[in-house]
């Protein structure tokens, strides 16, 4: 009888857990005011610094905002906010600007590696942050 293999939840380049792992955490969320939602162009990215970490913000056509790590795991460059926004099967996505890997904007999961592997042992998935839009202001959550 073999011992089952335990696969750890992927971490971001900064060692932060992805949203699906962080959602189970009992750590309190600290909300940081980032910008006005009207300052974000629809289906365009913008970079922001949240808790000392670079994130890429994307405003979708329904005015929801998603936040993922700015660092592209396949090139190592902080460029994800320059990615191409689209959809795959009705799911909002962003294609990395360097090698065109496609990521789910809600979960950060890499949907298409395009034949590349992440650099420096980084996880292929992007870290995500919770986002709330309150009274036209975008707030991004982080955990200590």
Describe this structure in words.
By secondary structure, the protein is mainly β. Mean pLDDT is 86; it is low at 1-24. The chain has one helix at residues 19-22, and strands at residues 30-36, 45-50, 53-59, 65-69, 84-88, 91-95, 102-104, 110-112, 128-129, 131-134, 137-142. The longest helix is centred in the first third of the chain and has 4 residues, at 19-22. It is built from 1 helix and 11 strands; from the N terminus they run αβββββββββββ. The strands form 3 sheets. The chain has a 4-stranded antiparallel beta sheet, with no helix packed on it. It has a 4-stranded antiparallel beta sheet with strand order 5-6-7-8, with no helix packed on it. Strand 5 (84-88) and strand 6 (91-95) form a beta hairpin.
Write the layout of secondary structure elements.
Blueprint: H1 19-22, E1 30-36, E2 45-50, E3 53-59, E4 65-69, E5 84-88, E6 91-95, E7 102-104, E8 110-112, E9 128-129, E10 131-134, E11 137-142
Antiparallel strand pairs: 1-11, 2-3, 3-4, 4-9, 5-6, 6-7, 7-8, 10-11
